[in-house]
Amino acid sequence: PVRALAEALKADVNWDGKTQTVNISKSGKKVSFKIGSREVAVDNKKVSIDVPAIIVNAQTLLPLRAVCELLGADVAIDSENQEIIIKSVKK
């Protein structure tokens, strides 16, 4: 879920139900995307992600790596221990 992950990274999340848009901000960085779109605005620059955001059981879902990287965090996978390591980059 986008909100849980973004808030864990100390970002603010806002939902615009009229436009089906999620707006995330963290340390001056702004990320915005619409449900069903693969296009994301990051500080007003358009980038594409692998899969579009979807809503399941009233939660917006997006791949973990996409959310982290859009917010400037590093993601690593420790396959030996079956762990995902997220490091929030301070700017």
Share of β-strand residues: over 45%
- Estimated radius of gyration: 13 Å
| Arrangement of strands in the largest sheet | 1-2-3-4-5
Cα-to-Cα separation, first versus last residue: 24 Å
Could you characterize what this model shows?
- There is one protein chain.
- It contains 2 helices and 9 strands, in the order αβββββββαββ.
- The strands form 3 sheets. A 5-stranded antiparallel sheet has the order 1-2-3-4-5, with helices on one face. Strands 6-7 form a two-stranded antiparallel ribbon.
- The mean pLDDT is 93.
- The chain is an alpha+beta fold and 91 residues long.
- The longest helix is centred in the N-terminal third of the chain and has 7 residues, at 2-8.
